[in-house]
């Protein structure tokens, strides 16, 4: 395979995770998976052996990509760890931070007089942080940050806290960016400083982000 990423193994996570409450309900989020799928497509096109760990999304598998479908944060964690070692990990998935403390085997029913329901949630394992501190750590670990405000400050904090090499922050909760949109703007931060990619189509941004990745690996 030719291309500037030939010979590299790239693992990408994408999409949301669904945390089941009972057989018919789950806790999820609005990630479409488009950004992560675009990154996986571009990595494969540029010659990398590309593993895409995908949460529940309605997207076709990009050409040349090996796809592993998962549903929950725990399953995504296991699938990502199983895909190591790798040269690059890009954590584009919107992994649930919390999951129900217990799964109800039967559908939770309401009874007369119920005015509310308290759902107990517990923290999920942090896949990105676990990859970044793994004994066989990829040479480059890239995290994403979905923020509604204070983009750069939160991304800087994430860079240090999760020991990742690069953070791509994007704004969510506004039209034309973040979850579900086809376009996005990425504020990319690493130890060398920050730069803004876009606004552009997520497919264009995927290549721009991989240009930065390739430059870091040279
Ligand atoms: N992530 C992960 N495992 C988790 C949670 C998040 O790997 N259990 C990864 C995501 O794939 C993404 C990054 O961490 O690369 C996002 O970090 P997170 O701290 O979840 O971001 P926010 O949700 O934006 O942060 P916060 O909850 O602190 O606002």
Strand order of the largest sheet: 5-4-1-6-9-10-11-12
How many beta-strand elements? 12
Beta fraction = 25-35%
User: Fraction of residues in helices?
Assistant: 25-40%
Question: What can you see in these coordinates?
Answer:
Strands 5-4-1-6-9-10-11-12 form an eight-stranded mixed sheet, sandwiched between helices. Strands 2-3 form a two-stranded antiparallel sheet. The chain has helices spanning 34-45, 73-83, 127-132, 151-161, 202-217; strands spanning 9-14, 19-22, 25-27, 49-54, 65-69, 88-91, 98-100, 121-123, 140-147, 166-171, 183-190, 193-201. Helix 1 crosses helix 5. The chain has five helices and twelve strands. A hairpin with a 2-residue loop joins strand 2 (19-22) and strand 3. It is globular. Helix content is 26%, strand content 30%.
Give a short overview.
The chain is an alpha/beta fold. It is built from 5 helices and 12 strands.
What features would you highlight for this structure?
218 residues; alpha/beta; Rossmann fold; 8-stranded mixed β-sheet; two-stranded antiparallel sheet; 5 helices; 26% helix; binds cytidine-5'-triphosphate
Give me the secondary-structure topology.
Layout: E1 9-14, E2 19-22, E3 25-27, H1 34-45, E4 49-54, E5 65-69, H2 73-83, E6 88-91, E7 98-100, E8 121-123, H3 127-132, E9 140-147, H4 151-161, E10 166-171, E11 183-190, E12 193-201, H5 202-217
Parallel strand pairs: 1-4, 1-6, 4-5, 6-9, 9-10
Antiparallel strand pairs: 2-3, 7-8, 10-11, 11-12
Helix pairs in contact: 1-5
The site of cytidine-5'-triphosphate has 16 residues, from α3 and β9.
């Amino acid at each position: 395979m030719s291309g500037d990423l030939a010979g590299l193994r790239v693992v990408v996570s994408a999409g949301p995770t669904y945390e089941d409450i009972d057989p018919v309900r789950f806790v999820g989020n609005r990630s479409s998976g488009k950004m992560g799928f675009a990154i996986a497509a571009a990595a494969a096109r540029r010659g990398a052996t590309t593993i895409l760990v995908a949460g529940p999304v309605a997207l076709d598998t990009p050409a040349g990509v090996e796809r592993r479908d998962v549903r929950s944060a725990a399953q995504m964690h296991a699938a990502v760890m199983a895909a190591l070692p790798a040269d690059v990990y890009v954590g584009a998935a919107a992994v649930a931070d919390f999951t129900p403390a217990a799964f109800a085997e039967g559908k939770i029913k309401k009874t007369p007089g119920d005015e509310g329901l308290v759902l107990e949630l517990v923290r999920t394992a942090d896949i990105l942080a676990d990859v970044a501190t793994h004994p066989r750590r990829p040479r480059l670990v890239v995290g994403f940050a979905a923020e509604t405000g204070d983009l750069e400050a939160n991304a800087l904090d994430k860079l240090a806290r999760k020991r990742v090499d690069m953070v791509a922050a994007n704004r969510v909760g506004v039209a034309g960016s973040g979850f579900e949109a086809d376009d996005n703007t990425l504020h990319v931060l690493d130890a060398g400083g920050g730069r803004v990619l876009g606004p552009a189509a997520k497919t264009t941004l995927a290549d721009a982000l991989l240009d930065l990745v390739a430059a870091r690996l040279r």
